[in-house]
Amino acid sequence: MAIRREKPSLEKLSMVGKDGSRQAIHPADVKGRFLRRRTIVYLLLIAIYVSLPFVEVGGRPAVFLDVGARQFFLFGATFNAQDFWLVVFLLAAIGFSLFFVTAWLGRVWCGWACPQTVFLEGVYRRIERWIEGPREKRIRLDAAPLSLEKAARKAAKHALFILVSLFLSHVLLSFFVSIGSLAEIVRQDPRENWVAFLWTMLVAAALYFNFAWFREQLCIVVCPYGRLQSALQDEHSLIIGYDTRRGEPRGKIRRSDRVSLPVVVGAPIQAEEPAKGDCVDCNRCVVVCPTGIDIRNGLQMECIGCARCIDACDDVMIKVGRPTGLIRYDSHNGLEGLPKKTVRPRLALYGAILLVACLGLVVGLGTRTPFEANLLRMRGAPFLIGEASIRNQFELHLVNKNPDASSFRVQVVNGDDRGMKVTMPHEDVELDSLQDYRLPIFVEVPKERFGGPFEVEVRVLDGGSERERTVRGTFLGPTASR
Amino acid sequence: MSETRKPIDSNEPLDTGHDYDGIREYDNALPNWWLATLYLSIVFAFGYWMYYHVIGTGQLQMEAYHAEMALAEAQQAERAAARGAVGDDELLAMASDGAKVDAGKAEYTTYCVACHGMSGEGGIGPNLTDDHWLHGAKPTEILKVISEGVPSKGMASWGPVLGADKVEKLTAFVITLKGKNVPGKAPEGMLVSD
Known about the structure:
Shape of chain A: elongated
Largest sheet of chain B: 2 strands, antiparallel
Number of strands of chain A: 16
CATH superfamily of the domain at 88-191 in chain B: Cytochrome c-like domain
Oligomer: heterodimer
CATH architecture of the domain at 371-475 in chain A: Sandwich
Strand order of the largest sheet of chain B: 1-2
CATH class of the domain at 88-191 in chain B: Mainly Alpha
Strand content of chain B: 5-15%
Shape of chain B: elongated
Helix content of chain A: 25-40%
Strand content of chain A: 15-25%
Structural class of chain B: mainly alpha
């Protein structure tokens, strides 16, 4: 006794009732090759997320974003606020890889890798299925009046949801405080770390709200990437589609359609019956859909490309002895029977921009030194003329971006041919991590040796990283008399 | 996709008749939670308006800014009062305190010898041991030069580098150099005799 539900249509969202109420979507169970593969991918991604806080690179957490100290440890490298410009390339690379993948493979990100899908389908929906049973049971439970059993099942489910949400939010927090201090923080009074406590609780509450109730509305109503699809895809992008040419006109299988049935002599001739398509209108593709659409209505923005309908339809096609792939991964053109194309200007353009962004990131990371050094001119007159010499006064601004204290050696490395005399209070500078320092450097050149502005080169050697960098400043003086 | 869609029964949404290049607008119900955000923001806006603009309990941005600046100034004055204003007498007293002078000398040998010489005889910077002073000979004047520098002449400002405490000790040490008349750079500035 199935409860009658409204049929999905293109005119309205399945999860919003006529009165604006939330209509829970209860996808039916499905088995198949894509589900199997997705399960493996989900498990892998969840394992990475949960185990990453424990991974250390070079004695520090692999991912540790210390926002308070503006220090960011990523896989052995240390970044501080001065490195923020790299984020431009990072975001461009991430953005355009999404563009590129979307134009090429459609919404594989949404169906296979987005945390929303991974945790909803990989964790929360499994818990729900485990406690409340398959689709029909869940629908009936929702419709049933409150009973002891219903209350017990709902309470158990939500308790587990809350536990999982708390766990996931603690994992998230560990990326910002490191797993070591997280272990300490959770043993302390929340009031001692109330900011971290509040964040963790807020994130847990948001996760719970999202995965217990909001669910697919995030993809359909909130996610900007989902809304960009129509602008990024074209008729050659890989989508999940229903082969209308093969499937229509759909219809239930009747005895008379079975070609394998022996022809009974004298049976009525079936000439009036129009030829049936392969779709048996079993509605399986609709009931397994996590966003509550009918894929046979064509590509819709609600489709997150999860491939559950492919598995469901293939299963049915095998049972009725028809070829699989009535619903399949294919391009719009492929489904229409038009020529297919993979390489096209859109893909080349997105790819080229992606490449530029990646190149920028690689070059930026490669030339980065774990310290900042800038040679500045000291305030005041650009040059001072003494009795026998001309003097320029510089100031070397040093910032130690190493994760630890480091000592720097500063040397002026050119100008011997001009009889240059360099005076600075000291050559070695000891700096704590992220400490900065201004070192005055006085440079003198005998008047008769000055023939016009020239470059002063200052070499900074970082004892910690053994990286060096040469910074330059211009030595100025009175221009040669004409 | 079908070309025409008409409401078949009462379950079908109302077609508003707006059609833009085949994209049609329907008058569907908005999700209730969505409407709730609208109503909640109206309630919030009323509360906000009352709090900041009608009753005036809350501080607007400029008020908050001024209040914070006033607070910072008060705190600064408090800190200065707690430290005790350093005047000429205090600095002179420090100059006869051996420990403080030694501490100042340590800073001197690290930061100052490059320009003022090992014994204060001068180099790039003026001779500190004679009776001529470019920027005043009073202890507070010496402190000011060390702390804030003389950019036009290349004297760096050491206050931000060393901090007030070390600058004071350094001043104490420099006071002890006065009158030692170490041969070196010729006297510069005004003769100050006391």
